[in-house]
Amino acid sequence: MPESENSTSGELEQRNEVRGQGDNQPDRHIRENRARLWQDLKSLTQSVVERMNTVEELRNRTGGLEYQIGSADQIIVNNRSTPAMSLTVTLLLSSIEICITTQFQGSSLLKRETREILDIDEESGHTLLRNNERRLLTVEEAVYQTLRQFLHVGTISN
Questions:
Q1: Cα three-residue angle 108-114-116, rounded to 5 degrees
Q2: Given this model, what pLDDT does residue 155 score?
Q3: Do residues 22 and 7 make contact, with C-beta atoms less than 8 angstroms apart?
Q4: Residues 149, 89: contact at Cβ < 8 Å?
Q5: Which residues contact 109 (CB under 8 A, 6 or more apart)?
Q6: Measured distance CA(38)–CA(143) in Å, rounded
Q7: Could you write out the DSSP letters of every residue in 133-152?
Q8: CA atoms of 90 and 80, how far apart (whole Å)
Q9: What is the pLDDT of residues 97-117, one digit of tens each?
Q10: What is the pTM for the complete model shown?
Q11: 79-107 as b/e, with b when 16 or more CB fall inside 10 Å?
Q12: How many CB atoms lie within 10 A of CB 74?
């Protein structure tokens, strides 16, 4: 029986690396940069949320924010005011999905959801994010654009 029919892909990858055949430097480089980008995104998001909660003017505008890790590949930020807003950032294979859900109270509960995919991209030796308009963003720019929506939650109407 051929080796591939009797082994999992992970086992084959390990065997190929031992033989020196599977150590694909570009793929390893991309995986390492993806992991570094994700860690930077989590750390900066947490840091900015903490800062927004300590600055009185920002805390008043957002109602206070709550940061949590949903899983190893997910960040969740919620506000503590109405309309209720929830941000979920999910690491995918070659992109990051941003989902923002806003719930409005009133005669009936209304919910609005927006999604955006940021592609993970390599440019001039740097790992960046590419938005739907094909614009390259640093981690700092992506965090700013995403979290600033909490500053305007009081001006959103259903």
A1: 170
A2: 55
A3: no
A4: no
A5: 103
A6: 12
A7: T--EE-HHHHHHHHHHHHHT
A8: 21
A9: 999 999 887 656 788 899 999
A10: 0.77
A11: bebebbbebbbbbeeebbebebebeeeee
A12: 14
Give the separation between CA 96 and CA 89, rounded to whole angstroms: 7
3-state secondary structure 26-56: HHHHHHHHHHHHHHHHHHHHHHHHHHHHHCH
CB 123 within 8 A of CB 25: no
Burial class (CB in 10 A: 0-12, 13-18, 19+), 41: buried
Collapsing DSSP to helix, strand or coil, 25 comes out as: helix
DSSP letter (8 states) at residue 107: S
What CA–CA distance (Å, rounded) separates 46 from 121?
23
Residue 10 has pLDDT above 80, yes or no: no
Tokens of 62: 């957002």
Q: How many CB atoms are closer than 10 A to CB 18?
A: 10
Picking from 18, 43, 17, the residue whose alpha carbon sits closest to that of residue 28 is 17
Give the pair of three-digit tokens for residue 30.
């991309």
Q: What is the Cα–Cα distance from 144 to 45, expressed in whole angstroms?
A: 9
Tokens of 49: 């949320």
